[in-house]
Design brief:
Blueprint (H helix, E strand, L loop, with lengths): L17 H8 L3 H36 L12 H14 L3 E3 L3 H7 L5 E5 L7 H13 L4 H27 L2 H12 L2 H8 L4 H27 L18 H14 L5 H22 L5 H27 L2 H5 L12 H17 L21 E7 L9 E7 L3 H23 L6 H18 L15 H16 L6 H30 L2 E3 H5 L9
Helix pairs in contact: 2-6, 2-7, 2-8, 3-5, 5-6, 6-7, 6-8, 6-9, 6-17, 7-17, 8-18, 9-10, 9-11, 10-11, 10-12, 11-12, 11-16, 15-16, 15-17, 16-17, 17-18
Amino acid sequence: MTAPDPLPPAPAAPAQGAALAAHVRGTTRWERLRDRMLVDAEWSAIVRWAAPFTVTIVAAFLRLVNLGHPHQLAFDETYYVKDAWSLWTLGYEGTWGEGANEAFTTLQELPLSEQGAFIVHPPLGKWLIALGMAVGGPDDSMGWRLATGILGTASVLLVYLIARLLSGSVVVATVAGGLLAIDGLSIVLSRIALLDGILTFFVLLGVLFVLLDRRRTLPLLERSDPDHPAPLWGRVRWRRPWVLAAGVALGAACAVKWSGLYALAGFGLYLVVTDALARRRAGVVLWPTDAVLRQGPVSFLLLVGPAAAVYLASWTGWLVTAGGYDRQSDPNPLIALWNYHQSMYGFHVGLTKGHPYASAAWEWPFLLRPTAVWVASDPAGCGTDHCIGVISAIPNPLIWWAGVAASVFLVVLLVRGWVRRSPVGPAVSVPLVGLAVTYVPWLLFPDRTIFQFYTVVMMPFLVLALAEALRRIAGRSDDTLDRRLAGQRTVAVFLVGAVLVSAFFLPLWVGMSVPYPFWLVHNWLPGWV
């Protein structure tokens, strides 16, 4: 087979371009096609690196700039910042005296005693807050929030990586990460030293590790030999390092707040179910029994063992000191720790004390009562009378409500796939599992005092569901050109709208001083005041 005819000679070039012209005249169409493919591959590699970098930089800018504002303990920082400094200095949570909040902002002597205080959350999140405080000192408000700011930024990158694994698309991953980067709830919980943003990071890290295990393990489980009859049993696999890593990450989530247990249980069940389906595809005869009774206990040990070890290790400060609450309830420190946990459990199940910003879980999808974490009347620096400074933990309403609608859409796809016995894929199932473990358990406690800002752990899974729904709206490669253009215009309009809404609400997420009427126009529902 002869090579195609060379291209016609190029027009005369100036002397400085003579070498290039000679090259072009001697280049065949196939060589030029090859060169173009190499250039496309280079640009593709640049985009694959530039997209997550850009999304993360945007997230960092919105979360870390002016992180020390306001220079006072806001909302539940009054608990976690003080507990963090107590852990750093005593190894356990001590008791604070009068005027502690003011002492943190004026560098007065901190009224901390060595008497153990009854604290109802595990210590890991407060230890991480303490690391930032150790850098700047107890009066450095940026130090209070450094851990939540960094981990909140990292959570955006994790969402990008998870979406990339689920969809295989840089565009879909960029949309998912970008939506979380500009979401107000995620921004606020990254700029305030509460535990829920830290919890979000570890849950997402665990999900990423679970997906990496699925990518590595499922092809091994699905292998079948067509020359041999279908086996009764599949292979039990112990070598699953990503499951071990997921156990560490989800154990850390439990060591921040107990609600991490739901994520540990839910994604542990997800491992078992996907193992079972992979065995069925491989032709294993007893695939349900094989996944549950043979592989299941191994997966349990690989996941829960590291999680339990990390959780216990988070209590090291309490275990090696003598002054913590209930520490002397038994000579055996592990039994004493168990006694403490019984007291903590009793507090959580019996918490029904009213709060002006309390919001039942059934209200969360409708965004009826977001939490204001800081309010200052007539703050300085406004330039006009009747100003207000607010930090409101309200999501971007457009992203939130669209994410709720997208999750309902994915439920419909899941049910339809189950009825038709057609698999829906992890891009549908993983966001739904994430929403199930971060939302449904709160519905079981209708009388407990809970808040809308707890949904910061849900938010990544809502944007993952939304990114998948937008991908389907944009159209598939086999759709008509008109269909794809219409879908892509719709997606573009939505994304531009989401950015504009975030710009509109940004002053209320970062505590800027604004005129009172400006604040009023942001209160779209009565419960937002």
